[in-house]
Amino acid sequence: MSEEKQHLPAGKPATPPEKRSSAGEVDAFLKQVKAVSALRAPGNGRLILALDATMSRQPTWDMACSLQAEMFDAVGKKDGLDVQLVYFRGLAECRASRFVNDTGSLKRLMAGISCQGGHTQIGKVLAHALKERDGRKVDALVYIGDAMEEDLASLAEKAGTLGLRGVPVFVFQEGHDGVAESAFKEIARLSRGAWFRFDRNSAATLAKLLSAVAVFAAGGVKALEARGRPEDRLMIENLRGGGSR
Length: 245
Prior knowledge:
Blueprint: E1 6-7, H1 24-37, E2 46-52, H2 58-66, H3 68-76, E3 82-89, E4 93-96, H4 104-112, H5 122-135, E5 140-145, H6 152-164, E6 169-174, H7 178-191, E7 194-198, H8 203-227, H9 230-240
Parallel strand pairs: 2-3, 2-5, 5-6, 6-7
Antiparallel strand pairs: 1-4, 3-4
Helix pairs in contact: 1-2, 1-3, 1-8, 3-4, 5-6, 6-7, 8-9
């Protein structure tokens, strides 16, 4: 990311959550990018990766940052996947990078992030994806989280609009929070994306699924069918089954 970080509009404050997800999945995602970039055609695919940067994520966030050079360099090569990182923290802070494939700026921003406590800001993430789509095609949005403390009707409206504009949301939920699960499944369904559950012991599975999302962003369902890995078949199954598993 560069110094040109975007501050997304402030939303309605919500009650702070009692717990937050870990960031082990961030490291897992980065480990898959090198393999995915080799499968893409030049200039194809724009992917938004959205996650929180709350205080409880700090230990694993630091671990992810320690591996960022190798992983971001893999996507930073010519013809690599264009990736935008969006993160939120605190009570009203939500920022986005530019879309980049030369990712030195992403590495600098990741290294400079300090996690802070706060409430979810999923509405800002969805609104930001819509704004990006208004300017140029966005092929997929990935959201990773474990809680939802916002108005579901508002989130559903944005998710449905993303679906109509061809931006599926792939939601990866850590934990078993029932309110979050219901909301995440609805976001995935309305956007024509998919929902998955994972835990700290399934980082490898998550990484493979995120790899499949990136393949989908590059070439759609046909690209998943052509690659044909188990995670690709699972992704296709979820895409065709309404976004939940």
